[in-house]
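Chapter review: from sequence to fold.
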Amino acid sequence: MPLPQRLRDLSTARSPRRALTLALAAGAAAVTVLVGAGAAQAASPAYVALGDSYSSGVGTRTYINDGTSCDRSLYAYPELVAGRIGDTLTFDACSGATTSDVLNNQLSHLNSGTSLVTISIGGNDAGFTDVITKCALPWPYNCTSDINNAISFIQNTLPGRLDNVYNAIHSRASNAQVVVVGYPRLFNGQTCNALARISSTEEGQLNNAADVLAGVTAARAKAHGFGFVDPRTAFSTHEICSSSEWLNGLSDPVSESYHPNRSGHVGYADLVTPVVS
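The token string follows.
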């Protein structure tokens, strides 16, 4: 930053002592500005949270009024992680997002100064919301074929879509640590809500689909040099119908169903924080 003329043109100062005093003051001010800027930058790295409803915070029942329909919550794990590690969060995750939505709508804040990116994506591409809805249809409907179709999509089509997203993230935020966050198994084999007609067999098949999704997502993340947070073990005693649920079962409103509740997002934050600290 150019110094004021009266400080730069020391040769015209009436007193050598005054000139020296002014020069020292100017130097100290410049050092203070530079150090202060560096400290501020170090204290507030740029964290961008991308992804779908599992990142935006659907299931916590309290959402930020930001003029969008993205259902972002202060109780979502990106908010919790940012508070724990002292990062400045740009919250771009949005309910209902697919890989195409991430590519088209969520990457504008990524740049060379981005230090951390987290993302959960892929579940909507595989149509899990529709699959679970069909699984809950009254007897005699059976959703096994729907689950198998989703698994086939995950194995054969989703890898390429994930690669497109991960390549775009790396291209825009080449200096960032990128952590891909997975999905938990939802069920423990019990039925505790008569309105959600999902048999224990179908619950097992849905859990198997979650395992397939985790395997594919972890493999693509690793191929791009990204970290992967797998929540399945941590959630294994907190599924729907457990005594300590981290996931909502069939809920009112329905949009809250089959998503992590506030305790679930704390669980997620407990998994993500050590990886990014």
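Two observations follow directly from the output. Residues 16-43 form the longest helix (28 residues). The chain has two domains: 1-43, 45-276.
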